[in-house]
């Protein structure tokens, strides 16, 4: 396992890459496969630590699941076929897995306890406990955090108005609503990624989203049917290379089979607005749009982002900060306080790390101000992931622009969402001529 890594400057990125499967869809494919009738096969599954936490938890809930590399076979047990696990379920670092399983387990007929690593144990869980409790669920937390004990109950449908923009909370409510005694209406604060809704329809569930894009109706007690699914490449993983090719001169890359769900691709429009050279060729596919992205180096202009744009770029905001650190002016990002409750306080960790390179970046309670006009310098102390995969990969990309190699500590954090990140980066990297 890599604990620290020397990142070397490169003179450009060239070539074509297929990024690993989508993390959000890998979690959801496992869960919906588990509660369906019959067999589900997931192709291009993401075998990263977070998704393996979901896979193992479902096995402990009595679901036979076999994995051969990136192909996963799930023997569905139906909505009422899960069984009480013999021990607590360890969700590792995975926020998505924890919140989604909280919704699913709230309506089962047994008690489950979820635990997690040090980072996950600091993350807020009231956000799922409160709306699930309003449906009749019984979730016990430890001062708002994990460990979480879920005492399965009969759940009631009805209307829930969400207090935060979170696809994780929405998906927990949808999974609970499937088990309720009457239909449920969930009203989002802002539209967030809609993978659960799309996938549930593919499995035969009845779920509708109104024209306002934020009112969702879930019909309970469906019989879901196992599916054979190919998971698109993860846009959030592609985003590291979109950013790298944009900020490193002499770059031109192609990313193929990337998921292009519009609730995820905010970074594309932001890079284009900043003057980036990104073109997209979208192919039609049932369920989720996929396509090819071409990216070349460009000198960027600053940008202003506010709350309404944040959900579609939430996991790419570390990369927006990095892009802004190369732009010809002052970028402001606001309405992004959710960053404070991710794997790390990402507002704090982004500022700490980019400042090591001399970037003029200031933290705001809900975002950043970044002046990209100052030139960067070699760090005087090692760069670090802080145990946060997205911070580690963002800094590995940033370091490629430096004049000399630099050290990245706790680089193994990439295993959470992108175990082959450094191999893929090496394949596209052109060495600086000696
Ligand atoms: O539903 C999902 O798969 C996710 C939703 C987002 O979290 P929130 O919805 O809580 O913002 C995102 O940050 C996370 O990486 C994955
Ligand atoms: C926030 C993330 O994941 P999770 O909430 O599932 O831990 C992420 O992948 O950036």
UniProtKB/TrEMBL annotation:
<comment type="similarity">
    <text>Belongs to the EPSP synthase family.</text>
</comment>
<feature type="binding site">
    <location>
        <position position="166"/>
    </location>
    <ligand>
        <name>3-phosphoshikimate</name>
    </ligand>
</feature>
<feature type="binding site">
    <location>
        <position position="390"/>
    </location>
    <ligand>
        <name>phosphoenolpyruvate</name>
    </ligand>
</feature>
<dbReference type="InterPro" id="IPR036968">
    <property type="entry name" value="Enolpyruvate_Tfrase_sf"/>
</dbReference>
<keyword id="KW-0808">Transferase</keyword>
<dbReference type="InterPro" id="IPR006264">
    <property type="entry name" value="EPSP_synthase"/>
</dbReference>
<feature type="binding site">
    <location>
        <position position="28"/>
    </location>
    <ligand>
        <name>3-phosphoshikimate</name>
    </ligand>
</feature>
<dbReference type="Pfam" id="PF00275">
    <property type="entry name" value="EPSP_synthase"/>
</dbReference>
<dbReference type="InterPro" id="IPR013792">
    <property type="entry name" value="RNA3'P_cycl/enolpyr_Trfase_a/b"/>
</dbReference>
<dbReference type="InterPro" id="IPR023193">
    <property type="entry name" value="EPSP_synthase_CS"/>
</dbReference>
<feature type="active site" description="Proton acceptor">
    <location>
        <position position="315"/>
    </location>
</feature>
<feature type="binding site">
    <location>
        <position position="346"/>
    </location>
    <ligand>
        <name>phosphoenolpyruvate</name>
    </ligand>
</feature>
<feature type="binding site">
    <location>
        <position position="123"/>
    </location>
    <ligand>
        <name>phosphoenolpyruvate</name>
    </ligand>
</feature>
<feature type="binding site">
    <location>
        <position position="168"/>
    </location>
    <ligand>
        <name>phosphoenolpyruvate</name>
    </ligand>
</feature>
<dbReference type="InterPro" id="IPR001986">
    <property type="entry name" value="Enolpyruvate_Tfrase_dom"/>
</dbReference>
<comment type="pathway">
    <text>Metabolic intermediate biosynthesis; chorismate biosynthesis; chorismate from D-erythrose 4-phosphate and phosphoenolpyruvate: step 6/7.</text>
</comment>
<keyword id="KW-0028">Amino-acid biosynthesis</keyword>
<feature type="domain" description="Enolpyruvate transferase">
    <location>
        <begin position="9"/>
        <end position="425"/>
    </location>
</feature>
<comment type="function">
    <text>Catalyzes the transfer of the enolpyruvyl moiety of phosphoenolpyruvate (PEP) to the 5-hydroxyl of shikimate-3-phosphate (S3P) to produce enolpyruvyl shikimate-3-phosphate and inorganic phosphate.</text>
</comment>
<feature type="binding site">
    <location>
        <position position="23"/>
    </location>
    <ligand>
        <name>phosphoenolpyruvate</name>
    </ligand>
</feature>
<comment type="subunit">
    <text>Monomer.</text>
</comment>
<feature type="binding site">
    <location>
        <position position="342"/>
    </location>
    <ligand>
        <name>3-phosphoshikimate</name>
    </ligand>
</feature>
<feature type="binding site">
    <location>
        <position position="24"/>
    </location>
    <ligand>
        <name>3-phosphoshikimate</name>
    </ligand>
</feature>
<feature type="binding site">
    <location>
        <position position="168"/>
    </location>
    <ligand>
        <name>3-phosphoshikimate</name>
    </ligand>
</feature>
<feature type="binding site">
    <location>
        <position position="315"/>
    </location>
    <ligand>
        <name>3-phosphoshikimate</name>
    </ligand>
</feature>
<feature type="binding site">
    <location>
        <position position="95"/>
    </location>
    <ligand>
        <name>phosphoenolpyruvate</name>
    </ligand>
</feature>
<feature type="binding site">
    <location>
        <position position="23"/>
    </location>
    <ligand>
        <name>3-phosphoshikimate</name>
    </ligand>
</feature>
<protein>
    <recommendedName>
        <fullName>3-phosphoshikimate 1-carboxyvinyltransferase</fullName>
        <ecNumber>2.5.1.19</ecNumber>
    </recommendedName>
</protein>
<keyword id="KW-0057">Aromatic amino acid biosynthesis</keyword>
<keyword id="KW-0963">Cytoplasm</keyword>
